[in-house]
């Protein structure tokens, strides 16, 4: 993994990049850190969602880099940045796929749990806590950001930060809930009411529609290359679909 592409030059300065983190949001998720790896705990929904996201991510990787679809390490020699990494539910699979992985989270408690879990799993992941724009990180071949943008204070600035961390020829993958009547009913009123998601996790007004997110990405000189919905059904459970009413996941790359 020594050939991974990571620029040594900082891509943004702390003195010029105002905060995107909401302290209350960071505190909320930090308080859940110790349960993050418990598939029956407060992050149970993420454990159900993760395999669906990973299926999309693996296909996107194979298509973007035209790699061997049977390879168990398609990201060997590449660098990956997961922003809003929590306790590492996505960082660890990316490391197993061969990437040199950096995980960033707003909550130091999450980073502590993530570091301990990775060490216990025999994985090397570089975890950082704090504002993305203040950490002086370089550019990465793959930038992922799962279920995060709905929690940030300044969405345009945050997307611009993500874009600045994406290396030329790189791939970005984002997922987030859509702002629809269905997401209000199922993700906020439903899932939080019955305990599938901790209360206070979602503020429906902060959800972002696909059109809005595409506009932000375009403003950051990124082109969206694929978008799929993530839906729930009693027979299939969570699955990829063309229906984006509940949640969606997309790929983007630098405009050419």
Search tags:
8-stranded mixed β-sheet; 7 helices; globular; alpha/beta; disordered N terminus; Rossmann fold; 256 residues
Can you tell me about this structure?
The chain is α/β, with parallel strands linked by helices and 256 residues long. It has a single domain (23-254), classed as Vaccinia Virus protein VP39 (Rossmann fold, 3-Layer(aba) Sandwich). The protein is 32% helix and 23% strand. It contains 7 helices and 8 strands, in the order ααβαβαββαβααβββ. It has helices at residues 23-30, 44-65, 91-96, 108-120, 155-164, 181-194, 210-219, and strands spanning 79-83, 100-105, 125-129, 140-146, 166-177, 222-233, 237-241, 247-254. An 8-stranded mixed sheet has the order 3-2-1-4-5-8-6-7. The longest helix has 22 residues, at 44-65. It is globular. Residues 1-17 have low confidence and may be disordered.
